[in-house]
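2024-03-11 09:14:02 DEBUG pipeline.ingest accepted 1 chain
2024-03-11 09:14:02 DEBUG pipeline.ingest length=727
2024-03-11 09:14:03 DEBUG pipeline.predict start
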Amino acid sequence: MTARRILDQPEYRLEGQEKVTGRALFAADRHRAGALEVAFLRSPYPHALLVSVDTTAARDMPGVHAVLTGADTAPARLGRRLLDWPVLAFGRVRMVGDRVAAVAAQTRAQADAAVRAIRVAYEELPAVFDPEEALAESAPILHSDAASYLYLDGTRPTHPHPNIQGRVVREHGDVDTVFASPAHVFTHEFEIPRTFQGYLEPRASMVWIEGDNYHVVSTNKSPFILRARMSAALDIPVERLVIDSGYIGGDFGGKGLSPDEFVLTFLARTTGRPVRAVTTYTDDMSATNTRHAARIRLRTATDAEGRFLAHEGRVLFNGGAYAAAKPGMQLIPGEGLTTLAGYHVPNARVEALTVYTNAVPAGQARAPGQAQNAFAAESHVDLIARALAVDPLELRIRNAIRSGDRDVVGYRWKRSTMISVLETLARQPQWARPLTANQGRGVALGCRPSPAGQLRATVALEVQPDARVRVQTGVPDQGGGAYTMMQRVVAEALGIGLDQVSVVRGTTAEALFDLGAGGSRVTPVVGGAALAGANALLGALDELAPGLPVAEQLEKAATDCLRVLGEFEHAAGEYCTYAYLAEVEVDRETGDFRIIDCVLVADVGTVINPLGLRGQLVGGFVTGVGQATMEEVRVQNGVVTTSNLDTYSMPTMSDVPPLHVVLLTDVKGDGPFGAKSVGELSNPAIAPAIANAVADAVGARMMSLPITAEKIFAALGDQGHPPAHSG
């Protein structure tokens, strides 16, 4: 196999055989002799004082080795940036599902029985569930001791209200002057609910102490970051913590948070035994981290032709009881400020804030902040187009960002493929296809930083005694195909066969530091490090055996165990762009609708894993369809009422409409061989495309997600049954 043909051919996943044969061990499959099973007592109240916790009966139960409460773990708190979530609750609970006590027993049944024997006296406190109400002067303050919380790698900004987790304002241009005398001003408000990431594998973890070291098996996708956070929270030197994130059964943003490993460390100390906790879907959906619910208000001034002159946005995120799941410095979802992403906005003021409430915490979810903002922004743009009687695609082309233009947060794009994407979409046969009565067509554009952060990576390449090249990395593969990508990049660069390259993942004690999987960084950044390592190896081989083919050079280097490092830092500011076309048909009598067809045009640069890339795009599409049409984590008085898959709906194969994918590969990215990232590219903008299609079909405008027959029916009634689409 020649170097070029490696990337041209569909890939075989390196770990595929282990997974399909069941040999792959996930965290819940890992066992150690003498391991104890852990269960948690959780709060039934959204906000209450802990008056007393009586564990006497539980300690005497058969098989019980330890019972811990907040009195045993205080003041330890956990978090990815702000450590505000008590390892076990002490003083008070702030949400239904807060962990009040932990039991380690011989079996899970014994641990569960002991949990039921614990007696807790609570004194209920006023609770607040709406983030706007949480900002009122009279609202209960949920974290009155926040000044004492650890905030890592910086200084936490101060905020005007103690219930604010994070707040950022970005402004450029002269917004007020433009709004004083525009041709048109449009204002709209949108609601987006919480959703669950939808990974197949619930969290699991195990901790044991061996010598001076704490060994941690985790489903966490960023083991080196987890190590640093555990060190800070538990006062354990980093070098004494060994984190092993093996096979991870899906992530979609949710697996950056690890609530259980911290308390397991206390239990391992107390018992002197390995301890393990395996959660359920109900645990994960009701008491870990969801996508943020959001209320988004957008105001845009345009000229007579619909060109954007100025824009204001306010994005209010419901952060839930704790900010611990957010990794960013500002404690808002990553793209929380991008209220008019992909457009040239010469004057803009955007505020994004997350607020404490007595509800399940919110954290990262695939394209954090973008899914909420894309629905609001692309619905807003469509409303503007229809009010001005401008074709919605033409209005987008008119305002889409060009190279050198300033975007909504004031950043000037070095280059843009947005116009090419939109024009390609307009050339698709679906665009000109005639529509019948009650059918509609909607478009939406989107963009994604490539990657969205975490721009550095290092890998090691070593020539083995059998003349094969081994790539060692510290990044876990949460299902995205990272190791297959690295194998292909190295084989491509060296001009050798795939069977001559192996990729191994090491624990934090074995591998080089890596920030982990997240922010769509793995292909452009870790792949860039793999390519840099391959090039460094070529240079070392040429010094060792100049003039020989690479295969012969490897033979000569095999006895020396030649080792090189590949280091790469991705340039900030690159964007991937994409656009959707969606067609729907609506039943006016019931509001029921079906998605007839969809087209995705995506700028992806060079393709490394052809099957994996398509899987990411189609998978993101399915995620977006689910969030558009059915997904919602419902919370009533602090209780998650959709806490399992019998009440929380996600798309099955029968729910997935046709999708035609068109790839643009001419404009190369800064990743290996010109690759860009696609892991979070395709899910945000499909929801507004569907909403815009529904409005085009029957005039029913959806201002909230999910889009349901009931909402459409109600909107049709409110609007007096507007005329059907004329085709």
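2024-03-11 09:14:41 DEBUG pipeline.report The domain at 31-127+197-287 is CATH 3.90.1170.50 (Aldehyde Oxidoreductase; domain 3).
2024-03-11 09:14:41 DEBUG pipeline.predict end
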